[in-house]
Amino acid sequence: MSANETAANQFVRDLVWAASSPPLLRPDDTAFIPTLDPAAIDREKLAAFLGERPERRVGHYFENLIHFWLEHIRRVEILAHRQQVWDGDRTVGELDFIFRDETGRLTHWEVAIKFYFLTKPSDGTQPQYLGPNTADSLERKIARMNDHQLPLSSRIYDNIDVRQAFVKGRIYHHPNSTGQPAGPAALDPDHLRGVWLHQDDVASFAETHRLEARNFAVLKKPFWLTPAVDRIAIDELEKFVETHFRESSNALHLAVFDRTDKEILRIFVVSNAWPA
Questions:
Q1: pLDDT, tens digit, 9 for 90 and up, residues 84-111
Q2: Which residues of 62-89 are buried (b: 16+ CB within 10 A; e: fewer)?
Q3: Is pTM beyond 0.85 here?
């Protein structure tokens, strides 16, 4: 398979995931439940669209996938994309998408993809949902969406019918944590889940899953949505992680597969110093 075919397959998988995976935040607009059949995707057009918008940032890549889905598959009328909002001579924000949906409703979408680790501080304080970059948290994101980003459209459009936070992603739990907190009310109960580990947790994790796990794949930015086809034997996991953290402090995003090549787990590995 050529490099172009491999990339096109990745784009298709990611677009289906972006449209059809469970939401991370509970949608306000339950009248629309998105699904996407891969057969509906023009692979060449998608590859060309994304080729004109190369991205290293996961969030921008996700936004480009949503843009293609709205424009070329749902074929809705997009009135604005990344529209700046001004207050006098300064910008106060940007609107991701303003469009008319299939029923004619004027819709404002703020889109995002987020990955958060559920942490339980040892001092007994409330659990936190932190991103790999701890400056980002689920609570902050929800507050910014609801208090700033979504209301911004009212400064320009006085007839919005639907304001929606279209957020996908995953919550990662540590295997040693006990009990599941209720989480913020905005968190969708059917959100995707994974496991986060410190580097020192990897050996015991690998031993626990040695019988069911066969391979793993490394998810590299911006392709954090679905794993690439390249596989590494699970027996190489500890060595791979050790080598990575000798050279970098960045988190590792991995997918684990069983002997039938079915993905059974999504993992983030962080340095032993995280979240400090």
A1: 999 888 988 999 999 999 999 999 999 9
A2: bbbbbbbbbbebbebeeebbebeeeeee
A3: yes
